[in-house]
Design brief:
The complex is a heterodimer of chains A (369) and B (283). Chain A contains eight helices and 18 strands. Chain A has 369 residues and is of the alpha/beta class. Chain B has two domains: 226 residues, HUPs (Rossmann fold), CATH 3.40.50.620; 40 residues, no CATH class. Chain B contains seven helices and 15 strands. Classes of the chains: A alpha/beta (369), B alpha/beta (283). Strand 18 of chain A pairs parallel with strand 15 of chain B, so a sheet runs across the interface. The complex binds flavin-adenine dinucleotide (FAD). Chain A: Belongs to the ETF alpha-subunit/FixB family.
Chain lengths: 369, 283
């Protein structure tokens, strides 16, 4: 449901939540935390992006940045801590227990709630992934605190409260949300919504083990098996350095191949605007934008995409945006860096060929494929 | 078995327009629909009812006109509809929403029979938070399984359910005990069209309507704005970028245009060439 209800009258006076005075019981909440999401020993990159953002918040507040790492006992835990330090954490709380080997809501939410209650952070950030969203919703409910989903910007105000900004009204507007009277202030951010911070090899931090009493026999949900995605199935769209995407300007499903061809020559990932998914031309994991993937490539080429606000919010992190659109007044030219006003269907094959020629000395060994 | 599906009436986002000058949303005359993600959960509930027997109740919290969505759900095949409506609910964030829905779910269990599975939508298209389902599960101590791509078995005898849950890197096959809260992934099933007799029944059906008190909520300070820890302080339009795109001149042929565009790309961002070479050579 909506946690963004700007339409509600700001009837102000007497509303408990509008009072700025933080209740006594929350005054000792301090420090910024990031939940370090690990699946099968691998830390999700969104956790590092959040550490980058968390670092800025912690510095502004003059407090420490901590990671929370949980999983089965083993070297993965230490490794995740070291990675967290490299990306800016001052310390990591670690919870090691065989029950935490794979994600399940019950043990994970118990563990995270327990460490929050014991060490009292003022801010807790999680990735808006399937795991992070599943976990954040239950932890916030147990703690009876506020949670703002899918933030695109996080900041602290002069009075030190967290200002969490997210799209609202289907992406056409932004709103800034506060959790004034409760702690921790919780927020999630989608992968790639925040830039990846610089990694400082060998940066050190403290490890603070935290014990939680968890036993497999008490956990109701059982994992029967895990079927990993075959790599060929998995799109790396969100993390690609170069992305080529097509929109309705391509005119028909058969022309989407032109986008794929260019992507293949560039070693890029391909994506699309939402109507192509709705029409069934392209699978949904290729959709870019507010209700699809957020991307941050070095180069983004958009062919036949108008640049609606919901698309824009997913691509604005790109270093260089190139638009191909027949309408010189298309909104995409308001935020693209470069553009060419021409028919994408005729232009894409020429662009593909030109890039192929330029790059062919380097691709020789792959030409057979 | 008793399946309850929580649905939300939302504006049809495909028809929302933003005012080109004021950049505010133009809501007038925008039709409302059942949140599309909820339909996959409704369909899954109907399927298992058809397979193992039982009833499907749909529940929504909203203004009185949200009964339109409930009636639509009845048309698709639900057996009973409950509307939770009260001015105390206005301005609820996700925490307050899950509080009110949990109270109504408890009441539904007491009134119409013990609930085996609560289905919620994966998220809504207007709020997009994916938080209400987990909130409901936590408050009612239900086993929580979100992002479900398939339910393989619902076993009423031993009170278990076996299902597949999407995680970031694969699919978890899970077995859990009822009662549970499940959210279905989009595309996990094909939503049926209602049958004629369902439509006729829906037109006549009485929608159960409860206010806060009738739903068993004593402490209304837990509802609506007052029960919402989050406060929206500011709504604003994204700031426009100062510069518009530099337009590359179209050449005599597409090939000439392509060369010109590539030159422009490399002029803007010389480092790109190295990246492209790296990618092209397969590193
Ligand atoms: C709640 C909500 C969420 C949404 N989420 C997303 C999202 O995540 N991602 C997303 O992309 N959209 C999203 N949308 C939809 C978005 O509002 C737009 O409708 C959509 O992005 C438009 O797609 P498009 O640019 O491909 O098509 P159109 O808007 O139809 O634009 C087609 C463009 O192609 C140009 N064109 C036509 N012919 C040619 C040609 N021969 N060569 C070159 N150009 C040509 C036209 O000038 C036009 O600019 C969402 C909408 C809502 C309400």
């Amino acid at each position: 449901m909506s946690d963004a209800k700007p339409a509600a009258p700001a009837a102000g006076a007497g509303r408990a939540s509008m009072k700025k005075e933080l209740p006594e019981r929350f005054r000792n909440h301090k420090h910024v935390w990031v939940f370090i999401e690990m699946e099968r020993g691998v830390v999700h990159p969104v956790s590092f992006e959040l550490l980058g953002q968390g670092r800025k918040l912690a510095d502004k507040l003059g407090v420490e940045l901590a990671g929370v790492v949980m999983g089965a006992p083993g070297p993965d835990i230490l490794h995740a801590c070291q990675e967290s330090f490299a990306y800016g954490a001052d310390l990591c709380y670690t919870i090691e227990n065989p029950v935490l080997a794979d994600y399940r809501n019950e043990p994970y939410s118990k563990a995270l709630t327990a460490v929050v209650e014991a060490h009292k952070p003022e801010i807790l950030l999680l990735g808006a992934t399937t795991l992070g969203r599943d976990l954040a919703g239950s932890v916030a409910t147990t703690l009876l605190t506020g949670l703002t989903a899918d933030c695109t910007e996080l900041n602290v105000d002069d009075d030190k409260s967290l200002a969490a900004t997210r799209p609202t009204f289907g992406g056409s507007l932004l709103c800034t949300i506060y959790t004034l009277n409760f702690r921790p202030q919780m927020a999630t951010a989608r992968p790639r919504a925040m830039p990846m911070p610089e990694r400082k090899e060998g940066r050190e931090g403290r490890i603070v083990p935290f014990a939680v009493d968890l036993h497999e026999q008490d956990i109701i949900t059982k994992i029967l098996s895990f079927i990993p995605d075959r790599d060929s199935n998995k799109t790396n769209l969100a993390f690609a350095d170069v992305v080529v995407a097509g929109g309705m300007g391509l005119q028909g499903p058969e022309n989407f191949q032109l986008v794929k061809n260019l992507a293949a020559v560039l070693g890029a990932e391909y994506g699309c605007s939402r109507p192509l998914v709705q029409k069934g031309w392209v699978p949904s994991d290729r959709q870019i934008g507010q209700t699809g993937k957020t991307i941050r490539p070095k180069l983004y080429i958009a062919a036949g995409i108008s640049g609606a606000i919901q698309h824009r919010v997913g691509v604005e992190g790109a270093d260089l945006i190139v638009a191909i659109n027949t309408d010189k007044n298309a909104p995409i030219y308001d935020f693209a860096h470069l553009g060419i006003v021409t028919d994408a269907v005729r232009f894409l094959p020429a662009l593909t060929e030109a890039f192929r020629k330029r790059l062919s000395p380097h691709t020789r060994d792959r030409m057979a494929g | 078995m008793h399946f309850v599906v929580c649905i939300k009436q939302v504006p049809d986002s495909a028809q929302i327009r933003v005012h080109p000058v004021t950049n505010t949303i133009m809501r007038q005359g925008v039709p409302t629909i059942i949140n599309p993600y909820d339909l996959f959960s409704l369909e899954e509930a109907l399927r298992w009812r058809d397979k193992v027997g039982g009833e499907v109740t749909v529940l929504t919290m909203g203004p009185p006109m949200a009964s339109d969505s409930l009636r639509k759900a009845l048309t698709i095949g639900a057996d009973r509809a409950v509307l939770l409506t009260d001015r105390f609910f206005a301005g609820s964030d996700t925490l307050a929403t899950s509080f009110a829905l949990s109270a109504a779910l408890k009441k539904i269990g007491e009134t119409f029979g013990k609930i085996d599975i609560v289905f919620c939508g994966k998220q809504t298209i207007d709020g997009d938070t994916a938080q209400v389902g987990p909130g409901v599960a936590k408050r009612l101590s239900l086993e929580q399984i979100t992002y479900v791509s398939a339910i393989n078995e619902v076993n009423g005898e031993d009170g278990t359910v076996t299902l597949e849950r999407r995680s970031e890197g694969g699919v978890q096959v899970l077995k859990t005990n009822l009662p549970a809260m499940i959210t279905m992934l989009e595309g996990s099933n094909t939503v049926r069209r209602g049958r004629i007799d369902d439509a006729l029944r829906a037109a006549r059906a009485e929608i159960v309507s409860w206010n806060a008190k009738e739903a068993g909520i004593e402490d209304v300070t837990m509802c609506g704005l007052r029960g919402s820890p989050t406060v929206v302080k500011k709504v604003f339009a994204p700031s426009p970028r100062a510069e518009k795109a530099a337009l590359v001149e179209v050449g005599a042929t597409p090939a000439a245009s392509a060369e010109a565009l590539i030159e422009a790309v490399l002029a803007k961002s010389p480092k790109i060439e190295d990246d492209l070479i790296k990618l092209a050579s397969g590193f």
